[in-house]
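> Could you send the ABC transporter ATP-binding protein prediction when you get a chance?

Sure thing. Input:
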Amino acid sequence: MAEEAPILAAEHVSLRFGGVRALTDVSFSVRRGEIFSIIGPNGAGKTSMVNCVSGRYRPTEGRVLFEGQDITRLGPNRRASLGIGRTFQNLALFGHMSVLDNIMVGRHHLLKTGLLRGMLYWFGGAQKEELEHRREVEEIIDFLEIQHVRKAPAGTLPYGLRKRVELARAVAVRPRLILLDEPMAGMNLEEKEDMARFIVDLNEEWGMTVLMIEHDMGVVMDISHRVMVLDFGRRIAEGQPEEVLADPHVRRAYLGEADEVTQPAEEVV
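Output:
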């Protein structure tokens, strides 16, 4: 029986900013239904790679395919409408808006009501649609255990809760593939454990494929199905977590034991 086609594939992706090489000939694929992590030292090209997948950057060379479709030249909004959601390393919430409204923003592209139906809102069309969207948002709020802050301005929340709200907004897109950029960054141990549990549940219970950048090796080892390692914009290893972290090339990259050579400039993100 033929192996199922990957949900995401990057083929020979290179990315340059002027004379700076952020990525060089990177190829990998993500299988449907897995948690796939990208790791590497600072400046390795991790965020640049995710930005190429999300549409924030367009590769200088190579292409990106989602469910077999070439999406290399599509913008972020179009990719979101196809089923790709993402969070950011630096929070991108609307601080003055409530948690509920921030999550509703994530569903904006799913709204089908046109101008005429909007004018006739109270006659049932748009009103019914909004109620359906709110029901789904409330389900996400319950799932991520943020009911107690649903009406609070997002900017007033502790950092760990704001990260959870951003995850909720990405989930609200109804993605089949969700891109998580440093979901554990800045969290204490308890917050990391909660976030890891939510990610696993999104994968196992909600059927979302996860592409994650993460520095916490404990989390990577615990929840990832496969791992890819980048170093100076190049892929140096890929496989199951235990195999990858035992690779001597990976250990040298993380421990700084590589031979002295002229290295490319740091990643531009």
